[in-house]
């Protein structure tokens, strides 16, 4: 910085928090050019800082034009893909409750609903609020302590998404590249299967790890091994399998039965060389809570404890990779 830049700097001293974020400040030919480090600020924080800086520089002689560049937030972020081999196994239910349990464990968590065939997170997470866009980036809404963006927020509710692969991948990209601020873990609820969306996620955003959800049925498990295979082949570490709907607890007598069989997940996980991270029972309370937009992980009691334990295992897995 030169002597000419001094009036800029003294004006910026009047803006709280601005001085330590200045990467460069130049005043030349009537133009003030600033580069500001915006790390850790969300869209409204960046907008407020820019507004305050412009106000402070308005009276500086020779600064007829002010150009402000905010550097992108390059914070390390863990992308955790949640996949399944087939539909209807409860992947969205597990993703939502896992995201909440991770947030309750003290992490800053975002949830992307990339399930193009049935974006159900607004329903499960109990928020149909439409997200805003700032500087061409979508700003997540916040619900149950988790930031969230869903393909379901981009289309009218109830309208089926008949997008082809590239369109769907493009829409998912807009969600992942949204303004996630200081989010540490971004949980991606993928569509079921091993198609274009999963491939484009792996190629463009390289998840740090993947979790696979399956029911204990043999057929679901065979499909789950395909999903594990896709991540393995593309060098995304699979930290484990979540067995959902594993055992039905009768709400009247408490007896546990196994409508989808028992022991299959353990066996399949053993064959694939991945651990079973947790078992989520098939309960009426989980189904009702999901339909009502009150995810059990956000409450207390046995269902919440199941997801808290799952979150702890997932964090261990993330630390180990
Ligand atoms: N552990 C559970 N106990 C009871 N009901 C459950 C459980 N897990 C999921 N469900 C219910 O099963 C249905 C399907 O769940 P969900 O939408 O999470 O599945 P999915 O695998 O994401 O499906 P999709 O194929 O649409 O992606 C929902 O009605 C949900 O409430």
Total count of strands:
14
Structural class from helices and strands? alpha/beta
CATH superfamily of the largest domain: P-loop containing nucleotide triphosphate hydrolases
The value of Rg in angstroms is: 23 Å
Give the low-confidence spans. none
Strand content: 15-25%
How far apart, in Å, are the first and last alpha carbons?
A: 44 Å
CATH class of the largest domain, anyone? Alpha Beta
Which hetero ligands occur in this complex? adenosine-5'-triphosphate
How many domain units?
A: 2
Helix content range: 25-40%
CATH topology of the largest domain: Rossmann fold
Number of helices: 11
Provide the residue-averaged pLDDT.
87
| Main sheet attributes: strand count, strand direction, barrel closure | 9 strands, mixed
**What overall geometry do the principal axes of the alpha carbons give?**
elongated
Order of helices and strands: HEEHEEHEHEEEEHHEHEHEEHEHH
What is the gist of this entry?
With 321 residues, the chain is of the alpha/beta class. Helices cover 37% and strands 24% of the residues.
